[in-house]
Specification:
Strand content: under 5%
Radius of gyration: 27 Å
Largest sheet: 2 strands, antiparallel
Oligomer: single chain
Shape: flat
Helix content: 55-70%
Length: 306
Amino acid sequence: MATVLQPRATRPAAPASLSRTPVKERFPGMALPGLVWYALFTIGPVIAMFVVALLRWPGMLITPTFAGAGNFSTVFNDPVFWDAVRNSAVQLGVGLPVMIVLAFLLAYYVVQRPRGHRTLRYLLFIPALISAPAAALVFYSLLNPDGLLNGVLGMVGLPDERAWLADPATALPSLIALDLWAGIGYSAVLLAARLDSVDEAVVQAAHLDGAGSLRVAWGIYWPIARDFVGVVAMLQFLSILFNSAQNVLLLTRGGPGTETTTLSYLIYQKAFLEADLGYSQAVGVVLFVLGLLGMLTIRRSLRATH
């Protein structure tokens, strides 16, 4: 009698990408030192920040105790924290769009190769070559009551006694002006490197069709550089959000009142001036989350569409 052979059940095969990849290619190899360094000195401090945010720790020499979510409750009920949120939001909401648009237009001008464009590219880097204290000193000399700005205003018959860094109406805009001065040139050089790759034949064809410079800039260069603009915007977003403490410390120390207290300066103030480490790191966690959300928003808004 004939017997029917039943097919043997077989285990599902592993995905080809894993089963066929040699072990030595999956092992990090030369990247291992970098990965270990990143894990120890980047991921490690982030984990430490989350742990300290759960502690009541009023000074490095005092034994911390567990506070749970108490620090976050204190932070969210503190009006100074909300003042810092408002100031950081204004700093980003005004400074970042202005910086990116002006940097893009400046980069577009550079890639048109006007006379002296090579020298111009070097000049745009100058703010990046000046240290933060030196730049702060320049702006202090410009904006103090006896400074250059009031001197110019006095020469043209305008009020010349304003203390720009001590006036609640002008202190935060003065810090935004410093961000713009430091970021526009650097961003323009980065964007110009991307705009240089645009095919000149396409641009010339557009000009032959009667397109003006503005139409070429926004119709040809902007879509091609859109994803790179997103990268530059994310870098400047993080720089303004996380590094604003140095300019605030050097120029206004958060004042007048809390008019220039930003989130990153609040972290510094609570950690190093008031020795409230738990509160400080709780704000750090909030800033970490806001940074992630901001990057995702910029990425989705400016990702490539072609």
